[in-house]
Model the fold of this input.
Amino acid sequence: MNSEQLLARLVAFDTTSTRSNLALIDFVRNLLDEHAITSQLVHNDEQTCANLYATIGPDDHGGIMLSGHTDVVPTAGQDWHSDPYQLTTDDSLLFGRGACDMKGFIACVLAALPQMTATKLQTPIHLAFSYDEEIGCVGARRLVESMAGFEVKPRFGLIGEPTSMNMVLGHKGKVAYRVTVSGLSCHSAYITSGVNAVEYAADLIAFIRGMNQRVQQQLTDDSYSVPYTSFHVGNINGGTALNIVPRQCEFEFEIRNLPQQNLDALVHEIKHYAADTLLPEMQARYPDSGIRFDEISCYPGLHTDPASSVIAYTRRINPIDQIGDNVSFGTEAGLFDGIGINCLVCGPGSIDQAHKPDEFVSREQMRYCDSMIENLVHGCRETAEFG
Ligand SMILES: [Zn+2]
Done:
């Protein structure tokens, strides 16, 4: 099967995040079996989703990892002109959910299996396909945990998110939290008998806003369209009626950090303000008051050194010899980078089409990606690189 035929097969699996991706993983596994490639699966707790990891070639030195996520975003509420789970084509474009984000890349990788196994590779190629990336790099986190114990890890990772085949070296990280502020309810005529959860939540939000302004002054990076670490509160919910002091208030916030900025320290500062400034005041009036932080998602940013050898290498194999701007969307690259795998992001299709109705990847982009992987396989046969 060529990459387009494989893409049609992959698109046909509805792998919307949180749904099972096992049918797709089974399909890929069978394909690998046909080429006598053994693979291992790393499941989620519920055993409904799995990451797949496989090594082709020697297993005694690093090599190159080709990585992509198998999940896609929902189509609900989107106005599609064709069945999103059936690849449709015109002269130049291939339409389907996941066409560019990012089953197109995975299809190109799988199409090269015959070349990867035709002769012995000098440099190993590793395949890493994850689940539930779109809801916060959930699967890759688990894969990375199991890879951390590997004796030999890939030296270099190519993450095939849609970058129009430009080589992208950086993106921001992100953390998201749900905060639940609990106080004490009472009649609003007697506010001193209660603890107003909405007002304490507002204090905390004002603190987060203040940090946002301060951090903007401290560190900027003009290679990002928003050139600083940004904070954002997306929703808030609290109180029942004006004449009742509200007992509970919930809100959600996120921080999208420049990879150069320490995310843990920022989160710590917010939690510290809640625990050491707000909470004692609340508990003095009502000891059972509380401020709880639940992490919704978290992934690190990516900041690959332009002088890194992985860049020079990818420039040699990529027909699009173009370093792209840093991007605003997150990827799994930062997680892999965290265990010492130098990563860059490069894949077919444009992020402009991702997550949208009538998502597509162009045939031209697929051809570029096919030829990059062909060049990569050729190089891995000839020389032992990335030891
Ligand atoms: Zn993606």
About this structure: The pocket of zinc ion is lined by residues 69, 101-102, 133, 161 (CB under 6 Å). The longest helix spans residues 263-285.
